[in-house]
Write a structure and sequence with these properties.
By secondary structure, the chain is of the alpha/beta class. Helix content is 49%, strand content 7%.
Length: 372
């Protein structure tokens, strides 16, 4: 639809003069009525002086025309006769911030700051690995999420870019499914204690999987991601937004299954809600099933629940966890999913973030790694 552009826009003074003539008044008459100097009235009529809120109210009293009409007329005239048009850089700045969360990228020191807008735009595009603001990063082009199947948002693309940037700094062995399956077997003895989670980054690196933790930025909605630097260089990225032992291990095993299945090679697989039982994607169904089996033997868990007349107590969970050789928080997490009772057993969900960040490649949580 075309935009209407008036052929000519008159200043308030044009209408003031017309009103004076229709009343057979002079500018001096209006000056005396309004208690203003004659020169001030003359400058308003010649559009040399703006109609302010105070002047508009006085004109309403003097001429009987609403103050808001005078203010709208003044604004419209100035809009079309401003001799200093807004610089194009304003629209360019707006376009850049619509494309990427510039404030968060700068605050997290993901790029070097600069007062030169063109240079800032170049740095943002370089960070996102795009050649224009209209491009989508190749690594996010086919991104899918576990909820709604929507493409990655600009905030998620920026977070993904940082995950990949950090992953490039991690030395890792050549990847193979056999190595990753062996690493997963080595995870099992670690499931008894939160402190043992510190071994995950190195075990994954030995299997050829780069493990990165990047703290979330507002609006991210990402728990974990599977992406690849190349067809033989997988990455698991986590935000650790949910700091509990069950979410950590479920997330790690979930993403490992994505890697084993080769998911995410054409674009990141973003997991933003691994608690949803109604997930229909085959990718997610397989990853969820593998993660659940890893956390607790699912048949044993069902039998444990079915034997109970009431909801299992904390003591019963601890005893069951000891038999399963799991930390009680991991069993509690699976029970919360199984019973759809996410308000229960929160006291059993031990924290692991403070342990993981001591050995992982991390951005956030008070850590800002330097990238050369």
């Amino acid at each position: 639809m075309s935009t209407f552009v008036p052929a000519e826009v008159f200043p308030p003074g044009y209408f003031i003069q017309w009103e004076l003539e229709s009343r057979d008044w002079t500018q001096e008459d209006l000056a005396q009525i309004m208690g203003r100097p004659l020169q001030a009235i003359n400058e308003i009529i010649k559009a040399k002086k703006k109609v302010t809120e105070e002047t508009a109210k006085e004109l309403e009293l003097a001429l009987g025309i609403d103050a808001d009409w005078w203010l709208r007329t003044e604004a419209l005239y100035r809009l079309h006769h401003d001799s200093k048009p807004a610089p194009k850089v304003i629209s360019k700045r707006a376009a850049l911030r619509r494309r990427a969360p510039v404030r968060h990228i700068l605050n997290r020191h993901w790029i070097e700051p600069t007062d030169d807008h063109d240079e800032l735009e170049r740095r943002v595009m370089r960070f996102l690995s795009i050649e224009s603001l209209e491009d989508k990063p190749r690594f996010a082009a086919a991104a899918r999420q576990t909820v709604y199947g929507e493409p990655a948002t600009p905030i998620q693309e920026a977070w993904l870019a940082r995950v990949r940037q950090l992953a490039k700094t991690i030395p890792a062995s050549r990847y193979s499914n056999e190595k990753l399956e062996a690493a997963i077997e080595q995870f099992y003895p670690l499931l008894m204690s939160p402190d043992e989670s510190r071994h995950v980054p190195q075990l994954l690196a030995d299997a050829g999987v780069r493990f990165v933790v990047v703290e979330q930025i507002p609006g991210l909605k990402v728990q974990a991601v599977c992406t690849w630097l190349s067809a033989t260089e997988p990455i698991i990225g986590m935000s650790l937004v949910r700091d509990s032992i069950d979410n950590f291990w479920f997330g790690v095993r979930h993403e490992c299954q994505h890697v084993l299945n080769g998911d995410g090679k054409e674009g990141a697989v973003i997991d933003n809600d691994m608690d949803r039982p109604d997930e229909t994607s085959e990718q997610e169904r397989l990853a969820n099933a593998a993660a659940a089996r890893f956390c607790v033997d699912q048949e044993a868990l069902r039998n444990f629940v079915e034997r109970k007349i009431t909801i299992p107590s904390d003591l019963e969970i601890r005893n069951f966890a000891r038999i399963q050789k799991r930390h009680p928080g991991i069993v509690a997490g699976q029970l919360r999913r199984h019973l759809n009772a996410y308000d229960r057993y929160t006291s059993m969900l031990a924290h692991v973030r403070h342990v993981v960040v001591t050995t992982a490649t991390v951005d956030g949580f008070g850590i800002t790694p330097a990238i050369n």
